[in-house]
Structures are given as C-alpha cells and as structure tokens.
Amino acid sequence: MAIAKKYLKTKPVCKVTFTVPTDDAKKVAVVGDFNNWNAKKSELKKQKNGSFKGTFDLPKENSFEFKYIVDGEYVNDGEADRYQWNDFAGSENAVLEL
C-alpha cells in the first residue's frame, strides 16, 4: 500500500493519493474522518496492473483516521504516518498527518 502527498501552494489543500496493490480484489474504498467513514464517497478505481488508486483533496494541517475496505474487510495501511486506538471500532486505525 502507498500514500502519496502533494501539497498545493495556492490552496490550503493536500492532494492525497491512496494506492492499494491487489491482484484479486473486486472492490476497494478508503474511509475515514475526512468522508464520515462513507465508502460510497471514496471508492478507488481499479488500474490495469490490478491495483486500486484514488486521489482526494484534504485540508492541510490536519490528521485523519482511516482504513481501507477491501471486498468488505477493513484493512490498515502499513505505510500510515501512525496508528491510533479507536474505542468505537475496537481496533487501531491508520492515521494520516497532513
């Protein structure tokens, strides 16, 4: 998994690209604080190489808890900036620092 951050000079926004490598997944989404954990607003597009990718404009100087949903299973990103326990979920969530 990979996260790429591109900070814009003209806006208080960071373009964040999430990439999830997988050969056999049918559906992948990224959910988190930035989209109210709504998978319909954040489905990633399948690439020719089999990975899933999506870019989102997120406000700078924030941190966001997030996870991927890969075919209905919640998965953390191994390259997250850090991890944080979430009592509501009863597990650790990946955290993105912008």
Automatic annotation (TrEMBL):
Keyword Membrane part of the UniProt annotation:
no
Biological process GO terms, please? Answer: signal transduction
Give GO MF terms, alphabetically.
kinase activity; protein kinase binding; starch binding
Q: Where are the transmembrane segments?
A: none
Q: Which Pfam families match?
A: AMPK1_CBM
- Check the record and name the InterPro entries matching this protein: AMPK1_CBM, CBM20, CRP1_MDG1_kinase, Ig-like_fold, Ig_E-set
Q: Which PROSITE patterns match?
A: CBM20
Q: Which domain of life is it from?
A: Bacteria
Coiled coil ranges (UniProt) are none
**A single GO cellular-component term on record:** nucleotide-activated protein kinase complex
* UniProt keyword terms in alphabetical order: Kinase, Transferase
Q: Where is the CBM20 domain?
A: 8-98
- SUPFAM superfamilies per the record? E set domains
Fetch the CDD domains from UniProt: E_set_Isoamylase_like_N (cd07184)
- Could you say which protein family the record assigns here? Belongs to the 5'-AMP-activated protein kinase beta subunit family.
Q: What is this protein called?
A: Glycogen recognition site of AMP-activated protein kinase
Q: Which species does this protein come from?
A: Maribacter aquivivus
Q: What is the lineage of its organism?
A: Bacteria, Pseudomonadati, Bacteroidota, Flavobacteriia, Flavobacteriales
